[in-house]
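Postdoc handover notes: sequence design on the structure in folder B. Input tokens:
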């Protein structure tokens, strides 16, 4: 009986381990088939081959940031690549489409969120607010989700600032390694 119980415990442990491995989410890598730690020189060559343009290089929080336009993807206005010591550590995809309203951005966000959840599991809601800006007729809205795994993360954020005469809306998908 004791031997049978030991075998049953071992079998249960093996099945739990296999089940946990099967349920484990995919590793979070940057988009476009890139890898964390890509060198700035290699990425510059890849961007040239893709006919994308580096429109600005600047420093943000101790990291070199490149604003890149021309990467073909529906609604993608700009991509920001961040480097620390010459190696890729963050990629931010910024989606903006002239003429889109709140409902169209919400649909895009829901589509992106579903794809991320299929790959990485359920995201954590980190922000959901709509408020009037102080001393202004501008209504601001922010909705954000985050996925964390093995010292990497993805943040999905929708931001809108709207009044009766104008609006600014953007959806950001920000990949990071720590």
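Designed sequence:
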């Amino acid at each position: 009986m004791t031997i049978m119980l030991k075998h049953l415990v071992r079998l249960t442990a093996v099945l739990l381990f296999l089940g946990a491995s099967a349920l484990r989410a995919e590793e979070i890598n940057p988009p476009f088939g890139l890898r964390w730690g890509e060198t700035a020189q290699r990425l510059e060559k890849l961007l040239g081959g893709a006919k994308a343009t580096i429109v600005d290089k600047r420093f943000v929080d101790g990291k070199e940031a490149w604003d890149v336009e021309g990467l073909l993807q529906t609604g993608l206005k700009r991509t920001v690549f961040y480097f620390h010591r010459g190696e890729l550590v963050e990629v931010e995809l910024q989606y903006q489409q002239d003429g889109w309203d709140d409902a169209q951005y919400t649909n895009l966000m829901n589509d992106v969120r579903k794809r991320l959840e299929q790959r990485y599991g359920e995201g954590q809601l980190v922000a959901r607010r709509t408020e009037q800006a102080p001393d202004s007729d501008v209504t601001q809205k922010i909705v954000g989700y985050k996925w964390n795994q093995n010292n990497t993360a993805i943040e999905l954020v929708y931001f809108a600032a709207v009044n009766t005469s104008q609006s600014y809306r953007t959806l950001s998908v920000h990949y990071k390694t720590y």
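Context for whoever picks this up: Helices lie at 2-23, 40-49, 102-120. Don't rerun without checking with the PI first.
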